[in-house]
Design brief:
Elements lengths: L1 H35 L9 E6 L7 H9 L6 E7 L5 H11 L7 E5 L8 H10 L8 E5 L9 H6 L7 E11 L5 H11 L17 E5 H6 L2 H5 L5 H11 L3 E13 L4 H18 L1 H29 L6 H8 L1 H19 L4 H6 L1 H22 L4 E4 L2 E7 L2 E4 L1
Parallel strand pairs: 1-2, 1-4, 2-3, 5-7
Antiparallel strand pairs: 4-6, 5-6, 8-9, 9-10
């Protein structure tokens, strides 16, 4: 009886490992079609809003990439919380050189005790956009997009069913240490969700939305007292029945390394935000990864007991352990797709290929750890500021 129960659990574990392969294959087909699809040009006036805090790795290169987009009519609004922020000091010097062809301004937003600093910066920037702006684009300061990023991000907005377009981040480690690899893999786990209208989202680090849609969805109100621009924009767009549209050409790279402790802090923060802002999604992730990793540990124990002659349950144990090679196969399917979306970094990703494959099972364990940690607290630290997430509409700055 015990054997058949373990065999059943082993089979379930195997199917849990196969399902992500199906999602990854769907994502692969979507990307292939999107990259080959021709969309008519659409270049309305854009206000590109860039909240900044501190100097990210490669900050100057990132800013230069955003100020040199191949786009006919756009402005850039930089915004910091205080005028003594290192980013503010740097940007003041940069803008005084006046060597850019596009209009750019720097705004100081101040500090709010009721919302995240990034959100407060965004809301202040929105008060300073041009009167003739037709599209708002929001980006993070730690991304380095290619020259066609803004053009590709805005084009799909000519479809009236699309409420917001989004890119996504790919963390590209400089040295390939374990913390950096886990950060990259952890973030990449969301990629297959981007083509599913039920579960996708508008990533706060790279998205564009028509001004009229922004106002109709009352996203400004949703952002107020929030800490997550991703969830506020996503919920606002879906709340008025429009689509979130992922643009494969707008995958943006962050060139940075991360220690294990930094990666753990970042992944814990993201998971806590997810638990507060999207409980159904968080519960699904928690249950799936907890089950998979419990089965993995059970499989290890069963195989060891079988080797020393305590049991003969080798088949159930092997089925439970199948989650490891299946996760590695999934990564092997996904990496070439990423290389297609950011071909300029293809060689670097190829060099890190085996590091990605070997670290994949550890990323799965990390997700389970994050889920457990998120059960114990609703407080996070983000860029040196401590927050308490009371609800999706209430944030307290501690």
């Amino acid at each position: 009886m015990i054997y058949y129960l373990l065999l059943f659990l082993g089979i379930i574990t195997f199917f849990f490992g196969v399902i992500p392969l199906i999602f990854s294959y769907r994502f692969k087909l979507y990307v292939k079609e999107a990259l080959n699809k021709s969309i008519p040009e659409h270049t309305p006036m854009v206000s590109l809003i860039l909240p900044c805090k501190g100097l990210d790795p490669g900050f100057e290169e990132n800013i230069n990439a955003l100020l040199n987009q191949d786009y006919p009519d756009y402005e850039v609004i930089f915004v910091t919380a205080t005028d003594d922020d290192p980013a503010c000091v740097f940007l003041n010097k940069l803008l005084k050189k006046n060597s850019y062809k596009i209009p750019a301004k720097l705004v100081v937003a101040g500090i709010s005790p009721l919302r995240g600093q990034k959100i407060n910066n965004m809301l202040k920037a929105l008060q300073n956009v041009r009167t003739n702006t037709q599209v708002f684009a929001f980006v993070d300061s730690d991304i380095r997009p290619n020259n066609n990023f803004l053009r590709n991000l805005v084009k799909p907005l000519q479809n009236d069913n699309i409420g917001v377009t989004t890119g996504i981040r790919w963390y590209l480690p400089e040295h390939g240490n374990l913390g950096s690899m886990l950060q990259s893999l952890w973030a990449a786990g969301a990629y297959p969700l981007l083509i599913d209208q039920k579960h996708n989202f508008a990533w706060g680090g790279a998205n564009a939305i028509k001004r009229t849609t922004f106002e109709k969805a009352e996203i400004g109100k949703l952002l107020d007292r929030s800490i997550s621009d991703t969830f506020a924009i996503t919920n606002g767009i879906k709340g008025i029945g429009l689509q979130v549209h992922f643009v494969p050409q707008c995958v943006v790279v962050s060139h940075e390394d991360s220690t294990l402790s930094d990666t753990l802090e970042w992944t814990n923060r993201q998971t806590i935000i997810s638990r507060v802002y999207s409980p159904p999604f968080w519960r699904t992730v928690f249950l799936v990864y907890s089950f998979s990793n419990i089965m993995l540990l059970s499989g290890v124990a069963i195989i060891i007991l079988s080797i020393i002659g305590k049991t003969t349950f080798i088949l159930p144990g092997l089925l439970m352990l199948s989650i490891i090679p299946l996760e590695m196969i999934n990564a092997a399917i996904s990496l070439p797709v990423v290389q297609q979306m950011i071909p300029e970094h293809s060689k670097r990703i190829e060099k890190l290929k085996w590091s990605y494959l070997y670290a994949t099972p550890l990323a799965s364990i990390l997700i389970m750890i994050n889920s457990i940690v998120s059960l114990t607290t609703n407080e996070i630290t983000w860029r040196g500021v401590r927050y308490k997430l009371i609800s999706p509409t209430e944030t307290r700055v501690l």
